Give the backbone structure.
Amino acid sequence: MQLLEVKNLEVSFALRQGDLVALNDISFSLGKKERLGVVGESGAGKSVTGFAVINLISKPGKITNGEILFEGKRLDTLSEKEMRTIRGNRISMIFQDPMMTLNPVLTIGTQMVETLQAHRKISQKEAEAVAVKKLERVHIPSPARRLSQYPHEFSGGMRQRIIIAIALLTDPSIIIADEPTTALDVTIQAEIMDLLQELCNSEDMGLMLITHDLGVVAEVTERVLVMYAGKIIETAKTSDLVSNPLHPYTRGLMNALPGHGTCDTANRLQQIPGTMPNLTEIAPGCSFHPRCEHCQDICSSEVPQLRKISGNDSRFVSCHFAEEGWQNG
Amino acid sequence: MQTKRQKIKDSYLLYSFRRDKVAIVSATILALFLFAALFAPMLAPYDPYDVTSIDIMDAEIPPSWMEGGESRFFLGTDIMGRDLLSTMLYGLRISVAIGIGAVFLQAFIGIAIGLASGYLGGRVDAVLMRIADVQLSFSTLMVAIIVSAIVQVAFGVGRYEQIAVPLLIVIIGIAEWPQYARTVRASVLGEKNKEYVEAARVIGLDSKRIMFSHILPNTLSPVLVISTVQVANAVMSEAALSFLGLGMPVSMPSIGSLINAGFEYIFSGAWWITFFPAMLLIVFILVINLLGDWLRDVLNPKLYKG
Amino acid sequence: MAEAIVTIDNLVKYFDISGGFLEQLQFDSGKIVRRKTEVKAVNGVSFSIQPGETLAVVGESGCGKSTLARTVIGLYPPTSGSVYFKGERIDTLSPQQMLPYRKQMQMIFQDPYASLNPRKSVRQTLEEPIRFHMGTLNKGEVEERMAHVMEQVGVNPGWKDRFPHEFSGGQRQRIAIARSLVIDPLFVVADEPVSALDVSIQAQILNLLMDAQEERGLTYLFITHDLSVVRHIAARVAVMYLGTLCELAPTSELYSTPRHPYTQALLSAIPVLDGKKKKHIKLAGEIPTPINLPTGCIFHGRCIHADDRCRSEIPELMESSDSSEVLVACHGVAEGRI
C-alpha cells in the first residue's frame, strides 16, 4: 500500500467571475522513504496541491472532486477535528519563510513543547527531551541550551533547521515541504537539501518537495511531477526526466535554466515565449499550445491526456506528440 | 486612457458597494442630508435668519402631531419662536460647511507637514512631529477657548456672528491636523524606500518633484479613509463647542447650538428642541462613520490585491 | 586597454543604526559613554569596469552587494573612497553637477512590483526621464523614442496607456528596463533583475538584457546571488563576502578553477541537473554580523584552511601567480597552501 494516494483531485475557487479550476485531475502517489518533487512556475498549482493533501484549502477554494488516501484512509472527507489528528502529526509541513512560521515572542523550546503536547499526552520534561533529540537530528549544536532562545537569535539556515525539527517532533510519515529553500542562500540551501535527504532515509518518511527550482528537485528527489496551469503535464523518475524531458514545456524549462541549458551561438538562453496563462484564460486544447514551438492543429482543439509512455511504467506525459517525437518536427 | 483605469477601479468600488447593504443605506441617508443642507433655503418652510418673520408668541409650540401642536410648524418651534425644522436645516448647512471646511484645512496642513516629515526625515521629522505632539496635547477645546477669546476681544462681540464660521473652521482645522500628518508620514515612510522612488532618484528628479508627483499620490488612500472620520469628528467638535457656548451664536445656530439652546428647557417639557437636532446629529455622524468603515475595507490594499 | 567607464577606489559604506542621541548612550564599566552602532556594509572595494563589458558582483544575502550598487549609482553617498565615471570623480558632486552623469547611468531593480509607480501609466513612467533629460525634444520625437524602446524590450507600444497592475511580473520588468534605456545611458546597474521572476521569464529577461547590450553597447554592473545566471551574462565576476571582495576573475576562469575557499564553497552549492550527485562543501559556523567584523581575513571563521595569519592579518586582493587577470584575497592562495 502506498503511504499517500491522490486520485483525480480537482480543486476549484468560487470567485465573482465564476468558478476557477485551480487543480485539474491530479493523481499521484507517495511511498515510504520516497522523495517526490512537485515543480512548476508560480501559479501552476503546486502549492495548492500541497494544501489540498492536508485539507487546508482556504475559502473560497474547495476540493470539488477526487479522493486523497493516507495509509488507505480517505482524508478529504474527514471532519476538521479528525483532520487535526493527522495534520501536523502524521503529515507535517515546512514552509518557505521560517520567520513566518515561528512565533517571534516565544522561545523555540516553548513552541516545540506546545506542538508536541497538542498531539500527545506528554509531560513538559519528556516533551523537552524529545525536542532536544530532534534538534540533534537536524544538527543544531548544543540543543539543550538552544531551547531557551528566541527565533531572532538564530540565523536563517538555523531557523529552517528548527522548523524541520518541529516537523519531525511527532515522527510523521510524510513531510510536505513548500519551497523550503527558496528564501535561503545557496550554501545554506545545499545544507538543507542534504539534511532532507538524510532524514527521509533515517526516519522512514515520505517527502513531498514543492519547488520552482528544477536543480533542487534533481538533487533531492527520486520522482517528479511537472505542473503547468493546474495540471500535471509530465511525471517520471527524476533521473529520466532530467536526462530526457518528453514534454516541450519541461524541455523548455530546462533549456531556460542559466548555467544548465543549451545556448545558441550568441550565448542567448533558449527561451519559452510568453507567460503562463491566468487560470481564467486557459487556452482550449493543450494549455501549453500558445507557447509551444511544436504546436500542431490538434494541440489547439484536443486536450491531451496524461498517457503512459511505452516501455517505461513510471513515465506519463500529456502531450499529443510525446512518443511520436515533437523533437523531430 | 484614464477612463479605462477609472472603469476598473470604479467597477470594484461599485461591486463591493452594491453588495454592502449598510453602505447603500448610509450613502442614501448621507446624500439626503447633504442635499437638504445644500438646498436648505429652498426646502425650509421659513427663513430662521429673517427676524421679521419670527414671532416670539410662537415660542415652544410642540410638534404638529402632539396636543397643542400646529400644522404650520411640523416639528414645533424653539424658544425664540422659530420653526424647528427650518432652523435644523439651516443648522445642518452650517455644521456641514464647518465640518468640510475644517477637514480641508486639516488635510492641507497635515499632508504638507506629514510629507515633509516622512520624506526628509532626520531633524525636520523630529521637530515637526514634536510640534504635532504638542498640538495634540492641546485639546480642541483649549484651542477654541484661547482663539475665540482673542478674536472676541480683537473684533468685539458684535461682529462675532459674521466671523464665527471661518473662525470655527480655523480652530478645528488647527486642532486636528496632526491626525493627517501622522497618517501621511506613516505611509510616506512605507513608500519612500520602495524601488520606484529610488528609480526616480536615479533619473535625477529633485526631492520636491519626487514627494509631490511620486509619493503623494500613493499615500492618498489612507487620507481618503481618515477624511470621512475627520468630517464626522469636525462636526462633532463644532457641536461640542457650540454646546459649550464657544461655537455658533444662537442667532445663527448650528446643530450643536440648537441642542444647547434647547437643553435648558428639556425639563420644562419642551424636549423636542433638543431631541430632534440631537437625533439629526447622531444619524449624520453614524452614517459617515459607517461609510468610512466600508471605504477602509474596500481600500485596504491587503484585501484589495489579495 | 581602453579607459574604464566606471572605477571605484577603496569604496566604504557604513550605515549608522544607533538611532537618536539617547539610544546611543550605554553603560561601560561604570561610565556612561556615547557609542555609535554601525553596519559595515561595504569595506574598501575597488574595481573598474571596461566599456561594453558586464561585471557581475555575486554574494549571499547581507554581503553588501546591493549597497555597493546603490553607492556606485549615487543613491547613497560613500563613507569614504571614491567613484569615477570616465575618469571624473562623481561621488562629491552636487545634485545639480551630477545631472549630466545621471543621464548616462541608470539602474534596474529587483522587484518589478515595487519599481514601477502604481499610479503612473507606462507612458508617464517612460516620459518622465525623457522630458527631464532631453527637454528639447518635441512631442513627436518623445513618442517615437518611447515607441522604439518599448518595441525593443518586447512590450507592445499600443499598451502605453496601461497601468502597472495590468501587466505580469515579466512584462513589468521589461517596462522597468525600458525606463532605464529610454534616455540612452552608457552604464546600467542591474540589481538582481531576474531574481523575482519565474524560470521561463528569467531566460527572456536575461536574453533581453544581452540583446540591449549588443545593440546599444551598454556596460553592465550586474548584481546577483545566483551564480548560474552570472555564467551567462558576465565577462568578469567579483565574489563578495561581508562587504569585501574575495575574488575577481574572468567568468570562465572562475568556474573552471575557483581559487578562494569561499568561491569554491559557493560553486559546490549550486544544484545541478545531471543527476551526478556532487559533494557540497560544508562551511563551518555562521556568517558573522556586519556590525562586528572578524579580525584578519573576514572569512577565517568559516574556512577550513584558516591559520594564525588568517586570523590576524587582512589579506589583500592580489594577482594570482598563474594569471594576471585573476585577483584573489587569500593568504592561503598567496602562500600556495590552497
Notes: The interface with chain A takes residues 15 of chain B (CB under 8 Å).
